[in-house]
Amino acid sequence: MKKMKKAGFLLCLIMIGAFALTGCKSTEQKRIVRIGHNQSTNHPTHIGLTAFKDYINEHLGDKYVVEVYPNELLGSQTDMVQLTQTGAIDFCVASNAILETFSKNYEIFNLPYLFASTEAYHNAMDDTELTDEIFTTTKQAGFLAVTWLDAGTRNFYTLDKPIESPADLKGLKIRVQQSPTNIAMMKLLGGSATPMGFGEVYTALQSNIIDGAENNEMALTDNGHGDVCKYYSYDMHQMVPDILIGNLAFIEELSDEERAIFEEGYRILNETQRKEWVEAVAAAKEKAANEQKVQFIYPDQEQFKEACMPLHESVLTKNETLKPIYDKIQKYNEMYPSVVE
Ligand code: GCU
Questions:
Q1: 96 CB under 6 A from ligand 1?
Q2: Is the CB of residue 198 below 6 angstroms from any atom belonging to ligand 1?
Q3: Does 179 contact ligand 1 (Cβ within 6 A)?
Q4: Whose CA is nearest to atom 9 of ligand 1?
Q5: What is the pTM of this model?
Q6: DSSP class of 33
Q7: Considering only Cβ atoms within 10 Å of each terminal Cβ, which end of the chain, N or C, has fewer?
Q8: Distance from the CA of 138 to the center of ligand 1, in angstroms?
Q9: What pLDDT does residue 275 have?
Q10: 210, 213, 219, 220: CA torsion to nearest 10
Q11: Does ligand 1 lie within 6 Å of residue 150's CB atom?
Q12: What pLDDT does 14 receive?
């Protein structure tokens, strides 16, 4: 499977290189717009991107052909961000966690227990004045964030040990995303952080290289992690958005009219993905409980939260420009407080 992915990745790189040499035109002289992501074709993100593709192809089909590459076919998220930076591909979906290595400002949305509730999270992420301050900071790196996608709540799950409190994480090797904030978070919680790409996690669990991971419920079903991990604990440590990023030069070269159509496309993607997300998570939870026999645990979140809170201060002290954004998020937290007491 991994070999096939690597072969697919290499093939895609060769294709991308060939297209670059021919000025990115197909035989019909249309500009191919390539978008990569790391989810399956059942996933809300793929469904949303398909709606985006259909919209652009319908409205700008005489000039552009959008192609969506799922399943890490173009490489891991980090690979895809780099391909987007150089313009080898035009867009990709990356977790906010990954983007922190390209611009420190993204650290803010990786903070554990940043948002008090899903409503606070959604309202803050929909506030473009707030997000633009972060989303435009990768311009120097050659890409721009154009919309966010829901990736739910991240929780710990393990092969065979229920996590009721941070003490249960002690000595466990837990896969985290390749982000310094996530590594620091695991340290504070007492577990041993094992960073790796998403595509590597299933094999690492299956071969006991790691004891567990942390993610939303879709990872249990769509990525098969629930076939091997039997305990999923709702400690709700993070709500990390996924972000659609685009190559800066490509976006800037669009005419005003084209840009308006792309912007409507981003809106359609965001709306479709979020609607699909609600149903997909409910279905994943049901499948994990009934078919994969995953046990869902509802621990007291307070102990996890307390352990993680020092990270807020250390990130804000290191990067003072984040403070006003952090304060704006607190306003949403006051408006939409946690319902779990
Ligand atoms: C979620 C998220 C992905 C991310 C993955 C991960 O599935 O939507 O963008 O890559 O978690 O843990 O790496």
A1: no
A2: yes
A3: no
A4: 95
A5: 0.93
A6: E
A7: C
A8: 20
A9: 98
A10: 70
A11: no
A12: 47
